[in-house]
């Protein structure tokens, strides 16, 4: 009998208008001055301003740190820690997709544990709980607001460091679809495919169990149904809200089951080329799963059923083939690029990318361990 620990923030608010819960939540937690962590785009576009208005109306003082890069770096984190201390902040409000969420987690961990962010690469390396974080998600994709994972780029080594740390878990996650209506179509597509990758990897990993299977399959079904609608019309509030639920469900799944080589490989593309994480995942997903299906074809049966195949008279391999082709079609429909070369990836770097992927914290979650040549071959399929 296996023992499983299921991590999720203690409080999760979701649905249209749930942003209004932030003021009362801060007061209830007796927090006096949060550091708002976001990025320049969210600040300029007015999306972060919707949260700041709520803080102003509740007469809650705050400081804003908006220097977060799309693939946040060690410098981003330590600059944020200095600013938090200079402003006397006792908590964090992260506003954004994965980058601000991950930066806030890293700042929160350093604030209570000290040291350099490199010290926390790996699994459960910190001794103390992060500062309280209210994680306000603006992107239906990363699930960073509900997970114990965060990713920071070490700009010196050109490596994305993966931290898996229960102490980084947010105190409250906030998923309001009204914050997502102005997201551009390409970002909606990339983050939606990131969420699909979370769900699929959580289903094929050896760490999967019935609770994570149930949440991941529900996420897959919602993403296939609603992502094309949200990409076609960002103001389709029903599609946005359903994707909020999908992201939450997929986040719960991979947070507790684990990920695999899609993420292990995508992290390297982000670290070396600074490419969007969701795009990299979307491009790699069908080709990594093609290899995984040779080892665990039975794990694709439930996925095939969730996206509409009558599986009763199908073999496991037929189910897997259907899933892989469906992922390719969905990626094409929502406008994911077809090749890595059009994004600037060079053949000469494949060996480095493969070496680093094999050391990635997500790699052990894959249902089989590929050789370096097999990893290079998977990269080459989308070059």
Overall description:
- The chain is of the alpha/beta class.
- The protein is built from 14 helices and 9 strands.
- The model has no long low-confidence stretch (mean pLDDT 95).
- A hairpin with a 4-residue loop joins strand 7 and strand 8.
- It starts with 10 loop residues before the first strand and ends with a helix.
- It has helices at residues 22-28, 40-45, 47-57, 74-87, 98-113, 185-204, 210-232, 237-257, 261-273, 277-292, 301-306, 316-333, 350-359, 372-381, and strands at residues 11-14, 34-37, 63-65, 91-96, 122-123, 133-137, 149-154, 159-164, 172-175.
- Helix 10 (277-292) runs antiparallel to helix 12.
- The radius of gyration is 20 Å and the shape is globular.
- 50% of the residues lie in helices and 10% in strands.
Keywords:
six-stranded parallel β-sheet; globular; 383 residues; alpha/beta; three-stranded mixed β-sheet; single chain; 14 helices
Briefly say what this structure is.
The chain is α/β, with parallel strands linked by helices and 383 residues long.
Overall pLDDT: 95
The end-to-end distance, rounded to whole angstroms, is 43 Å
Q: What are the secondary-structure elements, in order, as H or E?
A: EHEHHEHEHEEEEEHHHHHHHHH
What is the helix content? 40-55%
The stretches of 5 or more residues where confidence is low (pLDDT under 50) are: none
Helix segment count? Answer: 14
Work out the radius of gyration: 20 Å
Tell me the number of strands: 9
Biggest pleated-sheet summary = 6 strands, parallel
Strands of the biggest beta sheet: in what spatial order?
A: 1-9-6-4-2-3
SS-based structural class? alpha/beta
């Amino acid at each position: 009998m296996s023992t499983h620990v299921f991590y999720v923030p203690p409080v999760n608010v979701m649905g249209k208008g749930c942003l209004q819960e932030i003021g009362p939540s801060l007061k209830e937690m007796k927090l006096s001055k949060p550091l708002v962590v976001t990025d320049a785009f969210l600040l300029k576009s007015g999306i972060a301003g919707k949260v700041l208005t709520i803080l102003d109306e509740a007469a809650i003082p705050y400081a804003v740190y908006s220097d977060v890069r799309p693939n946040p770096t060690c410098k981003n984190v330590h600059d944020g820690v200095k600013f938090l201390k200079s402003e006397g902040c006792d908590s964090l409000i992260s506003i954004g997709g994965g980058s601000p969420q991950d930066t806030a987690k890293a700042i929160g961990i350093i604030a209570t544990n000290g040291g350099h962010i490199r010290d926390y690469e790996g699994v459960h390396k910190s001794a103390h709980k992060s500062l309280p974080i209210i994680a306000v998600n603006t992107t239906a994709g990363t699930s960073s607001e509900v997970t114990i994972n965060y990713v920071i780029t070490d700009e010196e080594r050109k490596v994305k460091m993966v931290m898996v740390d229960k102490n980084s878990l947010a105190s409250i996650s906030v998923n309001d679809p009204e914050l997502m209506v102005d997201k551009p179509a390409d970002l909606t597509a990339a983050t939606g495919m990131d969420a699909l990758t979370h769900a699929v990897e959580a289903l094929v990993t050896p760490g999967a169990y019935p609770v994570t299977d149930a949440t991941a399959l529900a996420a897959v079904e919602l993403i296939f149904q609603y992502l094309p609608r949200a990409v076609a019309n960002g103001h389709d509030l029903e599609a946005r809200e359903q994707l909020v639920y999908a992201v939450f469900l997929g986040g719960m799944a991979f947070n507790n089951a684990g990920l695999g080589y899609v993420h292990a490989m995508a992290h390297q593309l982000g670290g070396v080329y600074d490419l969007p994480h969701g795009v990299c995942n979307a491009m790699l997903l069908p080709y990594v799963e093609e290899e995984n299906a040779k080892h665990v074809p039975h794990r694709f049966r439930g996925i095939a059923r969730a996206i509409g195949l009558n599986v009763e008279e199908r073999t496991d391999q037929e189910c897997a083939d259907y899933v892989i082709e469906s992922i390719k079609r969905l990626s094409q429909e929502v406008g994911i690029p077809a090749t890595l070369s059009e994004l600037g990836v060079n053949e000469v770097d494949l060996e480095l990318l493969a070496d680093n992927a094999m050391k990635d914290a997500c790699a052990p979650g894959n249902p089989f361990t590929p050789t370096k040549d097999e990893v290079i071959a998977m990269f080459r399929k989308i070059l």
